[in-house]
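Complex 244.
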Amino acid sequence: MQSGLRSKLETKLHVGIIMDGNGRWATRRGLSRLRGHEAGVEAIRRVVEAAPQQGIGTLTLFAFSSDNWRRPKAEVSALMALLLAYLTSEVRSLTDNGVRLSVIGRRDRLPNAIAAAIERAEAASADGAALHLRIAVDYSARDAIVSAAIRAGAMQACSRAAFADLVTGAQNLRDVDLVIRTSGERRLSDFLLWESAYAELYFTDRMWPDFDADDLAEAMRSFHGRERRFGGLQPAASELAIGF
Ligand code: FPP
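Predicted structure with farnesyl diphosphate bound:
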């Protein structure tokens, strides 16, 4: 096991991305929304490749929210098909590049083939130490908090740290440092609400399918230019030490 390497990852930044604008990007080009989502997968590849060089240890991508089930059936099926294709075709290159893949969110409503592909991809990439890539699928931050509260209620006592583990489904997951949302929208849309308590927010007009390594670098520059005080009066010492 590489617990030493994993903990090193947790000393690097945690960035969450709300990948918005696939549909508008496609419609403006006279393409189907599906083409926009396909182009969105290309953007995911670019960002996953660039992230480790940007000081990012954990990258959480919002691929499908629990509210996205409300979209037309054909679009939901197309998104599920893209996800299945990604999980099966990408595992080799992810593992070759030291990327550990996890999927967060509910699994009980996903097609069986996807749930099985998630388990295989997670197992195959478990030793990745260059980047922890987390993909949120059928994910709702509020549902994650409610479900943690129910489990905590069955315990004798629950510290904030223990509750955080219940919410995140992981042990000592680093809080989100930066949330990026593309396409000009300025909302959190039920994404990582607990984990982002002190996250910096970065909004860009760039549509997700156009987002690239330079856009990520620009977001990181903005992040590094901010003073994070976490409620105190001075910049937090741990933040002074983080760089790349
Ligand atoms: C938001 O754009 C994007 C989504 C709801 C899905 C994001 C999915 C991908 C990038 C591809 C599939 C993911 C993986 C991991 C294979 P939108 O459709 O809401 O765009 P709009 O607001 O312009 O309509």
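Strands lie at 13-18, 56-65, 99-104, 131-139, 178-181, 200-203.
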